[in-house]
Amino acid sequence: MFDLSRSIDLHKISTRQTNEEAIAGKMSGLIGINESVTWRAKHFGIYQKLTSKITEYDRPNYFADEMVKGAFAEFKHEHHFAESNRGTLMTDFFDYKSPFGILGKLADKLFLKKYMTELLTERNRIVKDFAESNKWKEVIK
């Protein structure tokens, strides 16, 4: 789960609905500490670029990526992993601030929080699917 969550190749697969592609930095394989990737993706009908960097890393328990450049005022995405009697428990924390002050806060309430939750839920569903099948061999070499 830890390696699947930091796989650039699986990220591309899990975000097909936004046409996400790595265009700079680490563009395939497993991203690690102090490495960055720039993504180009279509959200709300507009192509956007976002660069994030792995800023914290404690294999196999935790890593965090933070936006270096992009549409948000800021964001930090924490990925936590713990063994459980049923396998691995993966918990994500996605803390972000929208741009545009009060308008950004209004956008959060109206649609952005729901959109981001659904995006991360779908991504994690696909990570889980790869982990629980032989599909993981396609992206972890």
TrEMBL record:
Gene3D superfamilies in the cross-refs: 3.30.530.20
Protein name (database record): Cell division protein
Domain of life: Bacteria
Classification via InterPro entries: START-like_dom_sf (IPR023393)
